[in-house]
Amino acid sequence: MEVQAITRNVRMSAQKMREVVRQIQGMNALQAVAILGAVPRKAAKVVQKTLKSAIANAENNNNLKPESLVVREAVAGQARSLKRFVPKARGSAGPIRKRSCHVKIVVSDL
């Protein structure tokens, strides 16, 4: 049985988020939560929160044991970008993209 949790529109680029998400793929879910607690990045906090939500979904909605859960899939996808402009020399404008992403974590029992 597979259970998922999705966090949408996180104000961080998907590229930065993917670096953290790749570390937990295929791991035991409770072990992944412990590892994310030790990672000193902003992305780790968001991924840990999403993973805890997926574990809670599995436990409460499908009566699965947290000890038997494995992170089957962990993906950080691109969301919409806020487009801003900053003044540049000679009256021109330079674009700024404030990127955001979606985090999707799927856990399943063995």
Can you put this structure into words, describing what you see?
There is one protein chain. With 110 residues, the chain is α+β, with helices and mostly antiparallel strands. The protein has one domain (2-109): Ribosomal Protein L22, Chain A. It is built from 3 helices and 5 strands, in the order βαααββββ. The protein has helices spanning 14-24, 29-38, 42-62; strands spanning 2-10, 69-78, 82-87, 93-98, 101-109. The strands form 2 sheets. The chain has a 3-stranded antiparallel sheet with strand order 1-5-2. A two-stranded antiparallel sheet has the order 3-4. Strand 3 and strand 4 form a beta hairpin. Helix 2 (29-38) runs antiparallel to helix 3. The longest helix is centred in the middle third of the chain and has 21 residues, at 42-62. The chain is elongated and about 65 Å long. The relative contact order is 0.29.
Radius of gyration computed on alpha carbons: 17 Å
Low-confidence stretches: none
The helical percent reads 25-40%
What general form does the structure show?
elongated
Number of strands: 5
Q: What is the number of helical segments per DSSP (H or I, 4+ residues)?
A: 3
Q: Tell me the name of the CATH homologous superfamily.
A: Ribosomal protein L22/L17
Major sheet summary line: 3 strands, antiparallel
Strand order of the largest sheet: 1-5-2
Overall number of structural domains: 1
Which topology does CATH recognise? Ribosomal Protein L22, Chain A
Query: Which CATH architecture is right?
Result: Alpha-Beta Complex
Q: Average pLDDT across residues?
A: 97
Write the element-wise H/E pattern from the N-terminal end onward. EHHHEEEE
Category by helix and strand content: alpha+beta
